[in-house]
Amino acid sequence: MSETTPLTERQENILAAIHDAIRHRGYPPSIREIGDAVGLASTSSVAGQLKALERGGYIRRTGGRGQSRTIELVRRPVITAATAGHVLHEYGHRGTEPGPFRRALIEAIARADILDRAQLADAYPGYVAAVSLIEGAEDGVEQLAAIAGVPAPAMLRPVPCGEAV
Q: Is 137 part of a structural domain of the chain?
């Protein structure tokens, strides 16, 4: 489960069950409670789904043998297809042309230092994650193309925002 692999419906339901339990009770549900909430009778099936969510960085599990285990939700920015398309377009690849505000936002993120990016991430986490991905990951363009649902571009290196293609 990577940045480009969407969660399955069952995984989304498990995350929602964990979130709801923490919000309403103040602590996460047990494996059996998660199974009951999402319609899984087998605790080993729930454990397998939790391992996949942990590998994907969506949850963190603490505790060990002889200790109660806890589950923490990890906030991860979600890069939507629209966001991925906008960022691809602004970096000179096939994508969706953003409106003037989104264009200015992407340019601001591209020019921001690390502290300003952190502040922008509070308000626009998906856009900051997408710009960071296209600038920092070797396969960032391909990952964003997969999220946006467009063919992977032939040009593999990102074009800095504002430069001619």
A: yes
State whether 25 and 65 are in the same domain: yes
Mean predicted lDDT score pLDDT of the chain: 85
Say whether both 110 and 131 belong to one domain. Answer: yes
What DSSP string runs through 121-164? HHH-HHHHHHHHHHHH-TTHHHHHHHHHT-PPPS--SPPPTTS-
Please report whether residue 158 resides in a domain: no
Q: What is the pLDDT of residues 103-116, one digit of tens each?
A: 999 999 999 998 89
Dihedral sign for Cα atoms in the order 48, 12, 153, 134: negative
Q: Which residues make beta-bridge pairs with 73?
A: 59
Q: Is the per-residue pLDDT at 94 higher than 90?
A: no
Same domain, 18 and 66: yes
Mean pLDDT, residues 145-153 taken together:
84
Structurally, the chain folds into a number of domains equal to: 2
CB-side neighbour CA atoms (13 Å) of 96: 15
71 phi and psi, to 5 degrees? Answer: -120, 130
b/e 99-115 (16+ beta carbons within 10 angstroms → b)? eeebeebbebbbebeee
pTM value?
A: 0.54
